[in-house]
Amino acid sequence: MAELTQPATVLSITDLTPHVRQLVVLPKIQRFLFQPGQWVSLQLPIGAKPPLNRAYSMAEPPSPAGQLTLVFDRVPDGIGSSYLYGLKPGDELLLSGPYGNFVLPRSLDRDLLFISRYTGLVPIRCMLKRLAASGVLPQSILIAVGPAENEWLYHDELLALAARHPSFRYMPVAVNGTDQDVVGDTVKLLRPLLTGRPKVTPLLSGVKGFVRPLRAYLTEIGYDRKEVKTETYN
Ligand SMILES: Cc1cc2nc3c(=O)[nH]c(=O)nc-3n(C[C@H](O)[C@H](O)[C@H](O)COP(=O)(O)OP(=O)(O)OC[C@H]3O[C@@H](n4cnc5c(N)ncnc54)[C@H](O)[C@@H]3O)c2cc1C
Question: In the chain, fewer beta carbons within 10 Å around the N or the C end?
Answer without folding.
Answer: N
